[in-house]
C-alpha cells in the first residue's frame, strides 16, 4: 500500500508556447503507507522548524524545491536579513533525499514535450481547414492538464498492478477549489466504472503543501528530474548538484517515466550524468496525441494497451 503524492514541473501548465518551459511533467512519489510515513512526517516537520528558526519566520515554511534551490522569497530576504546560503539550501535537498532513500520511496512520472504537442494541435486544426492566422494564435490544448493527470493515474495503476499493491493519490492544490474538477471529475468516475484505476483507492484528493508535507518528495524529485530532462534533451545548463541527487537518490528508485514527444525519451541509463535505472524500471514512450486532444473515455483503453506492451516486454526480456 502506498500514499502517492503528485506535483507539477513546468508551472505554465496548459500554455504550450513558453520557450523557457518546453516540458510539462507530473511527478509522483510513492510513499509506503506504514509506520515509515509517520516517521517521515516528523522528520519533515523538523526540517521546516529548523528553517523557521534559522530565518526567524513567523510560521514554518512549506518545502518548495525551486524556492529553496534558488533561495527565492523569504529564503533570500528573511526577517533576520540573513539569507539562506547555497550550502544550506543544498543541505535541505540532501536531507530530504536521504529520508526518501531510507523510507524506500518510489518514483514515476509523465513528461510531455509541450512544443511538440502544440504543433500536433495546430496540425489537426490545419487539416480541419482552420484559417492560418487563427492557427498561429493557438497557444493551448483544452483540458491538457486534466488529460495528463488521468494519463499519470493510468501509468501508476499499471505499476501498482505490477507490484501487487494499491495506492491513494494526493496532489498539490495551490488555492482552495482550484482543481476540484480534477479530483472529482465525471470523466474520472466514468473511467473507474469501466475498469480503469482499480489499483487506486478512491478519487485523488487535493492537498496544500503547507499542511501535507510529504508532497515535498514529489516536488523535489520533479524539480531535479525535470531539470535533468531539460539538460539532456534541450541543452539547458545543468545546475550544481542536480545530477548527483538524480543519480544517487532518484534514478535507482524510478518505477518508470512515460514520455510523450519526438525530442524526449526516458533519461538514458548509463549516461555521463546518471546511474543506470533500477532493475524494476519500465519506461514507455507515446508519439500520438489522440488521448491529449480527443475524448479520453474513448481513447484511454487504446493507450493502456500500448503501455501494457512495455510491461510485457520487460517480463519477456
Short structural summary:
This protein is an alpha/beta fold and 317 residues long. The protein has twelve helices and seven strands.
Major sheet: arrangement of strands? 5-4-1-2-3-6-7
Radius of gyration: 20 Å
Q: What is the averaged pLDDT score?
A: 84
Indicate the low-confidence ranges by residue numbers. 270-277
H/E element string?
Answer: EEHHHEHHHEHHEHHEEHH
Number of domains: 1
Main attributes?
317 residues, alpha/beta, seven-stranded mixed sheet
Give a structural overview.
There is one protein chain. The chain is an alpha/beta fold. It has one domain. The protein is built from 12 helices and 7 strands. It has helices at 35-55, 65-69, 86-103, 114-127, 132-136, 144-163, 180-183, 186-193, 215-234, 242-250, 290-293, 296-316; strands at residues 2-9, 23-32, 106-113, 167-172, 205-207, 254-260, 284-286. It has a 7-stranded mixed sheet with strand order 5-4-1-2-3-6-7, sandwiched between helices. α1 (35-55) packs antiparallel against α3 and α6 (144-163) packs parallel to α12 (296-316). The radius of gyration is 20 Å and the shape is globular.
What does the secondary structure layout of this molecule look like, with pairings?
Elements: E1 2-9, E2 23-32, H1 35-55, H2 65-69, H3 86-103, E3 106-113, H4 114-127, H5 132-136, H6 144-163, E4 167-172, H7 180-183, H8 186-193, E5 205-207, H9 215-234, H10 242-250, E6 254-260, E7 284-286, H11 290-293, H12 296-316
Helix pairs in contact: 1-3, 3-9, 6-12, 9-10
Amino acid at each position: 500500500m502506498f500514499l502517492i503524492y503528485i506535483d507539477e514541473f513546468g508551472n505554465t501548465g496548459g500554455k504550450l508556447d513558453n520557450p523557457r518551459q518546453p516540458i510539462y511533467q507530473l511527478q509522483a512519489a510513492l510513499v509506503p503507507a506504514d509506520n515509515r510515513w509517520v516517521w517521515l512526517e516528523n522528520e519533515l516537520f523538523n526540517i521546516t522548524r529548523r528553517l523557521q528558526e534559522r530565518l526567524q519566520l513567523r510560521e514554518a515554511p512549506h518545502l518548495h524545491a525551486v524556492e529553496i534551490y534558488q533561495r527565492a522569497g523569504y529564503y533570500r530576504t528573511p526577517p533576520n536579513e540573513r539569507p539562506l546560503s547555497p550550502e544550506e539550501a543544498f543541505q535541505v535537498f540532501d536531507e530530504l533525499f536521504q529520508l526518501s532513500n531510507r523510507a524506500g520511496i518510489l518514483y514515476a512520472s509523465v513528461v510531455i514535450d509541450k512544443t511538440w504537442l502544440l504543433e500536433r494541435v495546430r496540425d489537426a486544426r490545419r487539416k480541419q481547414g482552420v484559417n492560418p492566422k487563427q492557427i498561429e494564435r493557438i497557444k493551448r490544448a483544452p483540458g491538457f492538464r486534466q488529460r495528463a493527470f488521468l494519463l499519470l493515474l493510468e501509468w501508476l495503476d499499471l505499476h501498482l498492478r505490477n507490484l501487487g499493491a494499491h495506492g491513494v493519490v494526493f496532489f498539490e492544490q495551490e488555492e482552495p477549489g482550484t482543481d476540484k474538477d480534477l479530483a472529482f471529475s465525471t470523466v474520472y468516475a466514468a473511467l473507474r466504472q469501466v475498469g480503469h484505476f482499480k489499483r487506486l483507492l478512491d478519487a485523488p484528493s487535493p492537498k496544500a503543501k503547507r499542511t501535507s508535507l510529504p508532497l515535498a518528495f514529489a516536488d523535489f524529485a520533479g524539480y531535479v528530474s525535470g531539470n535533468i530532462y531539460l539538460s539532456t534533451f534541450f541543452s539547458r545548463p545543468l545546475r550544481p548538484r542536480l545530477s548527483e541527487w538524480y543519480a544517487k537518490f532518484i534514478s535507482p528508485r524510478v518505477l518508470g517515466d512515460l514520455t510523450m514527444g519526438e525530442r524526449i525519451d526516458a533519461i538514458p541509463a548509463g549516461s555521463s550524468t546518471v546511474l543506470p535505472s533500477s532493475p524494476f524500471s519500465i519506461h514507455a514512450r507515446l508519439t500520438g496525441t489522440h488521448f491529449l486532444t480527443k475524448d479520453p473515455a474513448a481513447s484511454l483503453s487504446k493507450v493502456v494497451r500500448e503501455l501494457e506492451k512495455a510491461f510485457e516486454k520487460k517480463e519477456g526480456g
